[in-house]
Amino acid sequence: MTPIPGTDRARDAWNRFDTASCVALLCAFVGSRILWITGNPASSQYWEEGYRWLAVHEIAAGAPLPLLDWQADHYQGSSLVVIGLAAALGWIGVGSLTALKVVALAFSSATCVALFAVGRLFFGRAVGLLSGLIYLLGPPLVAFWGVVAMGFHAESALFTLAGIGVCLTLANGSARTPLGWLSFGAISGLAIWFTPTAAIGVLACALAWPLMAERPSRSELTAAATGFCVGLVPWFLYNATHDFAGVAGTGLRPQGLG
């Protein structure tokens, strides 16, 4: 197997400067977004956040609904993750609106760090810095969805980056083990449960693999398939208790809030 050109060099070259760059990028990202949210709150909101906000309030009030019924739509579990995390913050005393913004910033901040890390580790320092700076500085629509707590395509970018990182690590040979393939499968399954459009990233990894490394063995594919099934467990649990509505159709679930 031929390693990805430059991958080993890029990984070995990670140093304190890279760590400092990553921390500085993260601080700049979080600081700028907090200034945006507090300085012009009306421009950092979206009407569908209202469902998440009300769901957090209802959960705090002890509304008698099963947890899975708070999912905002049938076809993706991401909204449930956002609501659950915000509700957990509310349980420790964080206001519901603040909690939603904290969750939104947590996802977008992690995405910014992941962009830098994947670019730096596999393509060099310049790519890592450029990727992180582009995410920090724009474009405006991407920036907007980074401060809105929705739990959909914007947040699923984090899963896609994690999957790409594991895929490149496997292709480079440094972690081509059953656990590595199991991890790639699990991340892929979770990503698709989180938001189905994340399947585009999974497919991209599959199509690019022949250009990066030799064909996976049967045991490697078995490990990946096993991980994929494990990652899809939340998807199956939801659909098994909701007449497989995530397969039969899409759309909002107005019954979630009565």
Description:
The chain is built from 13 helices and no strands. The longest helix has 28 residues, at 96-123. By secondary structure, the chain is mainly α.
Which secondary structure elements does this structure contain, and how are they paired or packed?
Layout: H1 7-12, H2 16-39, H3 49-60, H4 78-91, H5 96-123, H6 125-137, H7 140-145, H8 153-172, H9 178-194, H10 199-212, H11 218-231, H12 233-240, H13 245-248
Helix pairs in contact: 2-5, 2-6, 3-4, 4-5, 5-6, 5-8, 8-9, 8-10, 9-11
The dominant shape is flat
Low-confidence stretches: 254-258
Largest sheet: none
Which H/E pattern describes the elements? Answer: HHHHHHHHHHHHH
Question: How many DSSP E strands?
Answer: 0
Defining traits:
0% strand; single chain; mainly alpha; disordered C terminus; 258 residues
Can you give me a brief rundown of this structure?
The protein is mainly alpha-helical.
